[in-house]
Amino acid sequence: MIAMEADALAERLRIVRVLVGCFATGYLLVRLPHLLGLSRFDETRFAPVGVLAPLDHPIPPALFQAMVLGAIGFGVAFTASWRVRGTGPAFAVLLLVVTTYRNSWGQVFHTENLLVLQVLVLAVALALPRPDPAFVIRLLALATVATYVVSGWAKLRSGGWEWALGDTLRNQVAYDNVRKAALGAPYSPVGAWAVGHGWLFPPMAVAALAVELGAPLALVRPRWGYVWVAAAWGFHVGVLVLMAIVFPYQLLGIAFAPLLPLERVPAWIRARRSAPGRIRPRPSGTPSVP
After folding, report:
1. Smallest Cα–Cα separation from 249: which of 25, 71, 10?
2. Cβ neighbour number for residue 127 with a 10 Å cutoff
3. pLDDT given at position 72
4. 66-77 pLDDT, tens per residue?
5. C-alpha closest to that of 121 among 76, 89, 90
6. How confident is the model at residue 283 (pLDDT cuts 50, 70, 90)?
7. d(Cα 143, Cα 115) in Å, to the nearest integer?
């Protein structure tokens, strides 16, 4: 039984690595024109944050562009598990630097934080000679949970319980949609409608805090984790509907992958393929029976 559980967790870890690697590499590819174009930004906008805070000047364009392309190359290798002990850490470091550099030009995005954190965890763990799948899965799940707890705590720290019981959320939704409409950017008509009905927001704010501060419950029991994942995913759907803000890593479910029994998926697919009554293709040359 213990061996079977270890094999299942190893399979889950493999699936999580592929999902996270595919998303991270695809994210860099989708953002490639923007990332390569950072060299055209006015240097006065450069305000380094995070691990790049000590910098006094922007990274030379050619060097940064090489780092972006290198991150994509190492991301492919990491996803394919090719020499992952070396390519994994290289990919994690470059991804951290590239995303941090992007955030150092006047607007700090937080939609990438969990992605980068989980890549770092995977890279460090898989670089070890014999990583314990159960420990790595637990650490990845802890990273997911921690980001929600920090977000909920930040709300309480800045606004106290008034954030949930007052008009803070309503004002945030109104400001975000008005700003986007004024700039000609896509905004949420649902959010614009909802701000006219103030009674809607306290229950939504309480639910948001419950999801964020209740995240540690997902680590207690697997079934509790499944319930929390559904609630957290619904939370991001709500953000999309009300504010037209997309958290793709969460909406695709990859952020929650360590908490889900993904190791059952391959067996389920095999069972579906071999299910009785499934029409299988007749070998070529086999005559049909009238």
Report:
1. 25
2. 15
3. 98
4. 999 999 999 999
5. 89
6. low
7. 10
- Evaluate if residue 196 carries a pLDDT over 70: yes
- Could you tell me where the DSSP H helices lie in 80-221? 84-102, 113-126, 133-159, 162-165, 168-183, 189-194, 201-213
Place of tokens 């008509």: 189
Its sign, for the CA torsion 236, 240, 243, 249, is positive
- Residue 23 tokens read as 């998303």
Q: What are the φ/ψ torsions at residue 244 (nearest 5 degrees)?
A: 55, 35
Task: Convert 236-249 to b/e letters by CB count within 10 Å (16 or more is b).
Answer: bebbbebbbeebbb
For the chain, the distance separating the N- and C-terminal CA atoms, rounded to the nearest angstrom, is 50
DSSP calls for 3-50: HHHHHHHHHHHHHHHHHHHHHHHHHHHHTHHHHHGGGGS-GGG----G
Token pair listed for 10: 């190893």
Residues 6+ apart with CB under 8 A from 250: 114, 232, 233, 236, 256
For the chain, the structural domain boundaries read 1-131, 137-260
User: Which of 57, 25, 12, 59 lies closest to 39, judged by CA?
Assistant: 59
- Tell me what pLDDT residue 87 has: 96
Segment 51-99, tens digit of pLDDT: 999 999 999 999 999 999 999 999 999 999 999 999 999 999 999 999 9
Q: Are 224 and 218 in contact (CB under 8 A)?
A: yes
Q: DSSP string covering 177-204, please?
A: HHHHHHHT----HHHHHHTT-GGGHHHH
- Residue 142 corresponds to which tokens in the numbers above? 């802890």
Who's near 289: CB < 8 A, 6+ residues apart? none
